[in-house]
Design brief:
Layout (H helix, E strand, L loop, with lengths): L9 H12 L7 H17 L6 H13 L15 H24 L3 H13 L1
Helix pairs in contact: 1-3, 4-5
Pfam families: Terpene_synth (PF01397), Terpene_synth_C (PF03936)
GO molecular function, one term: magnesium ion binding
Cofactor: Mg(2+)
C-alpha cells in the first residue's frame, strides 16, 4: 500500500506515521524511505493546499529521514518593514562583534551575521 498510493496522499502519510508510532517501521524500511523520497521531491516542485495537520505530518516525516525543507520563496513575501528590522539586527550584530573583538571572541558572531544577511 505504501508504494501503490499517490505520493502526497493523506492516507499514505497517516499510514507511515502509524507504522512509526507502533515501532514496526523496520519491517517497512525500504517502502518508507522510497515513499518519503518521493514526497520530498514532490513537495519541492508543487504548492499544496493541505490542512495544517497534513502539512505538519508531511514535514515531520520528511525531516525524520534527514531531508531538509526550505521555502526560500517565502522571503519574497516579507514586508519592507520587516526587512528594515533585519538591517537593524545586522547593525546590532556588528556592534556586538566589535565588542567581542576586544575579547578575541569575534568569530562567534560571524555565523549569526551570515545567517541574518541571508534572510535580508
Amino acid at each position: 500500500m505504501l508504494v501503490e498510493s499517490p505520493n502526497n496522499s493523506t492516507q499514505k502519510l497517516v499510514l507511515m506515521d502509524t507504522i512509526q508510532r507502533l515501532e514496526v517501521e523496520y519491517h517497512f524500511k525500504n517502502d518508507i524511505e522510497t515513499s518519503i523520497q518521493n514526497i520530498f521531491k514532490e513537495s519541492q516542485q508543487s504548492k499544496n493546499d493541505d490542512d495544517l495537520y497534513v502539512v505538519a505530518l508531511r514535514f515531520r516525516l520528511v525531516r525524520q529521514q534527514r531531508h531538509y525543507i526550505c521555502d526560500i520563496s517565502a522571503m519574497e513575501s516579507v514586508s519592507p518593514n520587516l526587512r528594515r528590522i533585519y538591517k537593524v539586527l545586522i547593525e546590532f550584530l556588528n556592534e556586538i562583534e566589535d565588542e567581542l573583538k576586544k575579547e578575541g571572541k569575534a568569530d562567534r558572531v560571524y555565523y549569526a551575521k551570515v545567517e541574518v544577511i541571508k534572510l535580508a
